[in-house]
TrEMBL record:
Matching Gene3D superfamilies: Histidine kinase-like ATPase, C-terminal domain (3.30.565.10), PPM-type phosphatase domain (3.60.40.10)
Domain PPM-type phosphatase residue range list: 136-330
PANTHER family the UniProt entry points to: PHOSPHOSERINE PHOSPHATASE RSBX (PTHR35801:SF1)
Its EC number(s): 3.1.3.3
Stored SUPFAM superfamilies: ATPase domain of HSP90 chaperone/DNA topoisomerase II/histidine kinase (SSF55874), PP2C-like (SSF81606)
Cleaved signal peptide residues: none
Upper classification of the organism: Bacteria, Pseudomonadati, Pseudomonadota, Alphaproteobacteria, Rhodobacterales
One Gene Ontology term of the molecular function aspect: hydrolase activity
Protein name as annotated: Phosphoserine phosphatase RsbX
UniProt entry keywords in alphabetical sequence: Hydrolase
Amino acid sequence: MKQWVEVQDQSAIAVVRRAARSLATRHDWPKLRIDELAIVATEATTNILRYAEQGRVLINAPAEGKGDEIIMIFTDRGPGISDMDQMFQDGMSSGDSAGLGLGAIRRLSNGFDIFSGPEVGTTIVCSFAKEAPRPTYGVEAVGLRVCHPNEDECGDAYLLRQTPKATDILLCDGLGHGTDAAAASLEVTEAVLRSRSFNSEPGAVMHEVTEQLIGKRGAVAALVHIAQPQMVLRYAALGNIATLRVRDGDIKRLPVRDGRIGARATRGYEETFDLEPGDLLILHSDGLKTLRDGYLPQGLLWKSPLLIAGYLLDRAFRGRDDASIVVIRIARSAD
């Protein structure tokens, strides 16, 4: 599922529950785990209706995971949770559900985070692993994407590759939206995977890809390589993919080179710098509004990368294009 489900009445509960079951079943998850996913989907969606009256839900299988991980995002713009401790007690939920509190939802999830307050509503993110969660090697990275509201295929794409020695990220946005844009993004991702320089030289990868795809529909893209354990970042970008580095609350926007893949061969704009423990990187397509202070409320950037990505994918979503976001955090201490 690559579209937000609007939660406005009781019918949304069944829609979200079926989506969770369908995605897990399609990837051959164990029956017990499918049932637990359904419980979380039901409980969290019911709570949106009870406490905020309306909101949104997104259920994703990350592109890099082949269905071995499922992510759920529940978000609303209600009054927030005034007594968080009470809501984590079992039995604190809607009378129309199983009566589970946030504590039970957290126990059923492999990963859980929540951001709530009177000015920001409530966003809950849950991740589920089919087997053992994958190691992060000191770099926690997550990607999310949603379609244009009138499309079934997403023209944005991302790759996340992690090994003990490096984390590599591609985020690209095929021109336009829908089927043709998705095909353009697929051409870019396949070219990146074929590149002799993938996993080492973003600028060289960008040159290879732009040279191969001259005359194609094209896309804009950003590539990031993080060498580990040195935590040195190398970056190349072409077109309007936004990349931000957040360090101790200070936000630096990385430059890009104007243009697109499909026009001419180029290495794009390149930069190399050292990362520090706690650094946060955010990459997003122009399906999200420019991330200014209004979309970055106090406390958000201290949350998990998944929570940050889910919150921003909702609050900054333009609603007239595909949208994608990748959020990366360098561990504050060695894993």
